[in-house]
From TrEMBL:
InterPro entries membership: Sortilin_N (IPR031778), VPS10-sortilin (IPR050310), WD40/YVTN_repeat-like_dom_sf (IPR015943)
UniProt organism field: Coregonus suidteri
Highest rank taxon of the organism: Eukaryota
Protein name from the UniProt record: Sortilin N-terminal domain-containing protein
Source lineage: Eukaryota, Metazoa, Chordata, Craniata, Vertebrata
A GO BP entry: vesicle organization
Length: 341
């Protein structure tokens, strides 16, 4: 089977998936797309020990289209290069730009297996382009052909950091923690790091300093690394979610005593740390439902009376003081229901 990637030189990217669909935009530089599995034997574990399969002659494409001006069309035509990934039978592809203006693009192709199957022989392939997508090379050997968790993606550091993180698909049983592969040279080389925990989500970069990483483990630990993943410290338990605020302020919600479904019932607390996990300030002492940090404002939604609409409180000073949000916000939250921001 064949899939093709169409790259517009510069900062724009068009993807064409084979009989599949474009999906989810993890951030502005990452796109994932998937194709419907074309094998008849559903439920069977898909493995691909062979590196070569037969390329199908005429795939049908579903295009994700952008509206372009005539000038943009001319630029597109002059800078479009097509790469056929012949022989790649992956069902899911994640494409990410690494750094600004480096010309480096990484592509991860993975085969999905049915959820309930014991995964054996699965694989992912990693491709790298250093010329804005004119050519790609299979660099899977750099990560020892390890199977990568596609839902944790291809994480590229902020700005021009050239930092990349991939998360290996490590079974929770029989392993003390997960494994990540880190690169500081835009994917020329990778280092494997044994984590002291199993991540429950993709690792999050600080928006300015690529050395600072945060992630929540499957048992609710809030883990921080200040050296791009080499050393990890658990700074809190029972964590539900977190977000970076201004500077190095980190906000996180947690349930105090491992309460079951505290998030659904709005029984969370909100803390912040302004020194990367050394000291903490409790910002919301009870009944927190959800929170977010946007444009310098900390938004929290709090359940004051059971069954009543949630109340929004907004802070412009990192949670020292709160003002109640307008009623329209309350109404909106009440109408949109239980979605967490
Ligand atoms: C790949 O395996 C070799 C041999 O076991 C090891 O030395 C190397 O560090 C591994 N590379 C990565 C990125 O894990």
């Amino acid at each position: 089977m064949t899939w093709r990637l169409l790259v517009l030189g510069g900062a724009c990217l068009l993807l064409l998936g084979v009989g599949g669909q474009c999906k989810e935009q993890r951030n502005r530089r990452t796109v994932s797309f998937h194709r419907t599995q074309q094998f008849g034997n559903h439920g069977k574990v898909l493995s691909r020990p062979e590196r070569d399969t037969i390329a199908s002659p005429s795939p049908t494409f579903t295009a994700c289209t952008l509206r372009l001006t005539p000038l943009e069309h001319r630029v597109l035509d002059q800078n479009t290069h097509e790469t056929g990934f012949h022989g790649d039978d992956g069902s899911s592809f994640t494409v990410t730009w690494v750094g600004d203006g480096t010309g480096v693009i990484l592509v991860l192709s993975t085969v999905s297996a049915p959820l309930d199957s014991f995964f054996e022989g699965g694989s992912s392939r990693l491709y790298r382009s250093a010329d804005y997508g004119k050519s790609f090379h299979d660099v899977s050997h750099l990560i020892n052909n390890t199977f990568i968790r596609k839902e944790f993606g291809l994480l590229a550091g902020p700005g021009n950091s050239q930092q990349v993180i991939l998360t290996a698909d490590t079974p929770v049983l029989d392993n003390p923690g997960g494994v990540i592969f880190t690169s500081t040279d835009a994917g020329v080389s990778f280092k494997s790091v044994q984590l002291p925990f199993h991540p429950a989500q993709p690792i999050t970069f600080h928006f300015l300093n690529p050395e600072y990483l945060v992630v929540i483990s499957i048992d609710g630990g809030l883990w921080l690394s200040l050296d791009f993943g080499a050393v990890w410290t658990k700074v809190h338990e029972g964590t539900q979610s977190f977000t970076w605020g201004s500077g190095i302020t980190l906000f996180f919600s947690f349930s105090p005593k491992g309460t079951v479904e505290a998030d659904r019932r709005g029984e969370l607390l909100l803390k912040r740390t302004e020194d990367l996990g050394k000291t903490f300030t409790t910002v919301i002492h009870s009944n927190l439902f959800s929170f977010g940090y946007v444009g310098g404002f900390l938004f929290t939604s709090v359940i004051e009376t059971l069954g009543a609409p949630r109340v929004i409180y907004v802070s412009s000073d990192q949670g020292d003081h709160f003002k109640q949000g307008p009623a329209s916000l309350r109404l909106h939250r009440a109408v949109t229901g239980g979605h967490r921001s």
